[in-house]
Give the backbone structure.
Amino acid sequence: MDFNAFKEAVIAKCAELGITEYELYYQNAESTSIGAFQHEINQFTCSTEGGVCFRCIYGGKMGYASTEDLSAQQAASVVEKAVDNASCLEAEEQVFLCEGGQEYQPLEDRSYPLPGTEEIISTVLATQDKLYQADPAVIDGSQTQGVAERSEIAIYNSKGLDLHSVTTLSGLIAVAVVTNGQEMANDYQIKLEKLDTIDTDALTKKAAATAKQKLGGDVAPTGQYPVVFDPEAMSDLLQTFSGIFSSEAAQKGLSKLADKEGQVIASEVVTLVDDPFHKSNPGARNFDAEGSPTYCKNVIENGVFNTLLYNLKTAAVAGKKTTGNASKPGYAGAVGISPFTMYIAPGSVSEDELVAQAGEGVYINSLGGLHAGADPISGDFSLQSSGFMIRGGKKAEYVKSFTVAGNFYEMLKNIKTVASNLEMPGMSGFGSPSVLVEGLSVAGK
Amino acid sequence: MISREVCQRVLSKAVSTGADYAELFAENTVNHSINMIASKVDAIKDGVIAGAAIRVYKGLRSVMASTVDTSEAGLLRCAEQAAEALGQGTAEIDIVLKERIFGDIHPVKIVPSSIGNKEKVAILKEGYFAAKDYDQSITQVSGTLMDVDHNILIANSEGIYAQDRQVRTRIAINAVADKGDGAQTGSCAPGRRMGLEMFDFIDPKNVGIHAAKQAVTMAGAGYCPAGVMPVAIDNGFGGVIFHEACGHSLEASSVAYGRSQFVGKLGQKIANEKVTAIDDGTIANAWGSINVDDEGTPAQKNVLIENGVLKSYMIDKMGGRRMGMASTGNARRQSYAYTPTSRMTNTYIAAGEDKNEDIIASIEYGLYAKEMGGGSVNPVTGEFNFSVNEGYMVRNGKICEPVRGASLVGKGSEVIQNIDMVGTDLDMGQGMCGSSSGSVPTNVGQPLIRVSTITVGGR
């Protein structure tokens, strides 16, 4: 059955069991992905994926059950399981469903007609050819992928909430593999927009040139240096540590930012924004995963910590209002907290000036192992890095296979300068300009 | 799940435009998890994942279409979509399916879905409170007990019609300790391809104590110094070094496309002669084990490297077509929504002959990595990283004070030459490995080993 029929079956089951407070969260995504290897299309995937998560308040606790099988039998089963699960919970925080009838900031429809199969295939093949033409060092193994996806989210609850959102995205991913005869290197570039507006010359040239830059290169010398993180590296670092801004982490003692609202936690050049409406975010929505209205906020303003991010439950614990940051890791997940589009606001100096300020240091444009080498609870990180030495205020030779180590909480205070080159790389929803940080440890040779 | 007759009709539709191979993969998975934090049961979730995917090949081209509609009409639509995407043509092969029953080498005594929440909560609490009550410096503990009942059906144009039921159970305890100089974490997360009988020999209390002890030890530790030094990596999850430094680069998903440091190296010496490495999906009830891979090929024990010489890659069907080699039973996918590719199962460095005490005694100044965290690798360059969850300095052949915040980085092809001592006490650790076909359970393993020189990231 479809979602609406499933919904009616669930409503009937709730009535039968006397369940009066409940929510259905529906997510469905249809995606197409087409890839080329050498000069042929070698991989074509079209998938439909999604399901429904049912939540209900039973005995003051929130029980969950989800399914991808929208059958009558499952409609009854998710209600029974969620009630059973709720009856075994012990957490004492009050739980809430979002009230209906609230005002939502208008959001223009950003969805667009997705490219058809033919258009994706021709764009992918043309881009793949350009990848080979971009540089003689480009070899087989290089790959272009085109994607198109339409996703849909609906939230319905017993308090009169009935929200629906459709988002579309399309884009290209170019992976360049290059060799100098002795070794190989690679780089990928992603561009998410309408296929016919993507500058595929620029995309493929950047992938090939960046990959080529990584050939050769020595290990950086061990020491303490000023470090410049480029927009991509800083966005990755920000994403890795974004959990520290969650009120849930703070309330559970898993973030050092508990009780720090209103205090200085970063250098005064740092302003950190969370903007659910940001133009770079294809998943922009005016409601969060509980259905609360979303809005743009400065999490840090000129170094002062304005607010943690809240959902309904944690806001009630803190005696505050939700910031509209309820989130779910997929439809089946429990409601947690995360930013929508989080970025460090740009400063006024160019990246070249930033590098000049560093004098003698290291410029990092790639970080690896963020899921392992960074501990969001302590803030400590020790991460595989590559980039360039900075000598005499200019980017010098390429260096790789070294680590940069420090502590994110301390680093926020040690950001000396923020450049003007704000970028929102990839599709992670995090962004940053290049930043200059004093005194991090580099381990290399 | 889906009858042989329906599969036959669906596959016939799938090959109707000239495919030379077609496959139907259907799945019905029941997930259950219980979470605790702040000494309370905080969340209990049930989930059903149900859907199917159809793949067709023609030469080196592959098409996959997936659907959540597993009715015959839904599957036929999905097959038509795949056939159309492959191109214009007429059927060239007949579909004749013969039922095949793979022996179950991973018996399950207590199917988790037959046990209620109360009993499972009691198990989790044993582990949880063992950690919470371990020491006054413990500031927070979180715990999860999860079980998965993953039912798959595979039918393909080679005639296979087979099903498998994969039951997995795992407990994870994370502890946070703070002695006033910053919070540190410890974790322990054993899992098996079996039911709740796992707790007959894994005491949840020991899981909690293990996590808490690590957090408390690291909370008292200073930062690891940075530099290049010898490192002894202990058994169990220490095997992540081989998984990242070498394993991923031996998967057909890298090798078949020329994106690996080990392309064209079969029969050549790529590692230190002390290194013999194996991927074995047949270990009874091990976390990464399978009866049959997600393309219907039975699990195998594959010797990857023998005394330093490269013997085998890990290969799926499409990778095998490109490489001109047979599948090694390594095709895996997180779910029907992912295109399967070659992945590891239980991958380990086999036991050697060096004594543990000799390995430590051989290090004048270096690091002893007792417990490793996760890591990652770029198979093209072989550059890898992984973190050390519990490390100790070694001076003059003796294990000294604990150190926090260490990570190890290097290049796979170099580091496997530098594994120059291999101990005798092989053990495995459990992880979830993420790659293009999603997140799949894998074991890593090794005895205590010495890496003669590697870059240690610290401060």
